[in-house]
Amino acid sequence: MLVLLSMSCHAQLSSTFYDESCPDALTAIRTSIIITNRGSVRGYEVIDYAKSEVEKICPGVVSCADIVAVIARDAFVAVGSPSWTVKLERRDSTTASPSLASSDLPSFREGLEKLVPKFASDEFFM
């Protein structure tokens, strides 16, 4: 039983996870970044807007954790940085902890070489 539980906690992430369940999710997120950045909106507003747009097309399918990971990649690409493959299938927490949520946030001063590994693994979102 313990083996099965430990296996489910470390799911393999996949860049194609939403290809069938919500094929337009990544496009909706990318479009959201373009729309909100034109209005100089930053931070949580971008995430909220992207989540609302994704919920319109696929209610209850795409996790906020995956949306944040995709936004991080697409925001860098929007300003001319190279792209990378985002692995998906993170699950949102069922409990909220403001202190835990803000304890390990990446700094806006960190360069791409430090940010990519944080968003490339599922450890950032666990």
Automatic annotation (TrEMBL):
GO terms for biological process: response to oxidative stress. It is an enzyme of class 1 (oxidoreductase). Residues 1-16 form the signal peptide. GO terms for molecular function: heme binding; lactoperoxidase activity; metal ion binding. Gene3D superfamilies: 1.10.520.10, Peroxidase, domain 2. Belongs to the peroxidase family. Keywords: Heme, Iron, Metal-binding, Oxidoreductase, Peroxidase, Signal. Its cofactor is Ca(2+); heme b. It holds the Pfam family peroxidase. It catalyses: 2 a phenolic donor + H2O2 = 2 a phenolic radical donor + 2 H2O. Substrate binds at residue 106. InterPro entries: Haem_peroxidase, Haem_peroxidase_sf, Peroxidase_pln. Residues 37-126 form the Plant heme peroxidase family profile domain. This is peroxidase. Its EC number is 1.11.1.7.
